[in-house]
Amino acid sequence: MKKAVFCFGTVVLVLLFAACPWCSSPQQISAAESAAVTAANTTAPVIPSISNSLGMKLVKIPAGEFTMGNLEAIERLRKDYPQYDDYRFSLEDEGPAHRVRITNPFYMGAHTVTLGQFRQFVEATHYATDAERNDAISSPSSSSRQGPGGYGYNVENHTLDTDRNPKHSWRNVGFPQTDNHPTTNVSWNDAVKFCKWLSEKEHKIYRLPTEAEWEYACRAGTKTRFWSGNDPESLVKIANTYDKSTARVQPEWAKFALKGDDGFEFTAPVGSFQPNAFGLYDMHGNVWQWVSDFYGADSYAKSPVDDPQGPPSGRKHVRRGGGWATWSFYCRASYRNYNTPQSRYFNLGFRVVMEEK
What we know:
Blueprint: H1 31-41, E1 49-51, E2 57-61, E3 64-68, H2 74-80, E4 98-102, E5 106-109, H3 115-125, E6 153-154, E7 159-160, H4 188-202, E8 206-207, H5 211-219, H6 244-247, E9 288-294, E10 317-320, E11 337-339, E12 348-349, E13 353-355
Parallel strand pairs: 9-12
Antiparallel strand pairs: 1-2, 2-5, 3-4, 5-13, 6-7, 8-13, 9-10, 10-11
């Protein structure tokens, strides 16, 4: 099944108005497209931003509209990814592509939450993450995915965990990380607790982005697979994904590696690559990012135009963007993955949204 894969795997931003079927005149373009055009024609676009009490930079994302979901024919993807088995192109949940309107601007973390920022939360609250709790069970039918622990790298035998390991959590993933690296091994529950704490601390509303907000922010006015274009090799300059570096520690998947080398075998410090037109870093790669929505395979067919929130209930939550060990196919802006709210991995983190009052 496609969703079982969590993958131990400038930009041409001048957008033709004719491609937008919902605009009423050639003079009207969305805020997102306007930002993309600005980024394409200036070397340093001015992006409104603020810093909060944790030193976290948040950039202002304008209201606007976009087409959410996969815009490509499956045959085109098969042609461009010939090394992939046919079952990997079962992408029904990425459609139908549909119009979405984000009606209010919001602030989003320019980076995913860092190890240092998450540590401030834990030290202030004495919070124990799902990986550190004995009652954290995410897959009752699988004994390997019950109980405490997370996933990480084992230096002694140069392998990545395939089962939960009690020695691994956000505090220790087995590979070097500084306070400026993304926090990992955090569950959806952990991410929501962090947002609640930060909201109370600053008397503002912090939360996870909705899935629609996330894709809108990731695309930043673009309509391509990645905000950097359609070419997977373009990711080397803007994202930390599965490439030559990662293949050195995961050689068994080498046929899926990018030909380029981003220089990082594991996570990269946040902001190590170029930002998109909205000033957001690592929207592709480094760590998967939790969003607020429950997962629904058919949710796009039922989605409202304005500010969709996802299904009203469910057992799993969506994660987006791909991680440092993720194959490029799964880092596409439209790709959807999901996990139980207790799930945590060495390539799974989150970024926050702050609502504008």
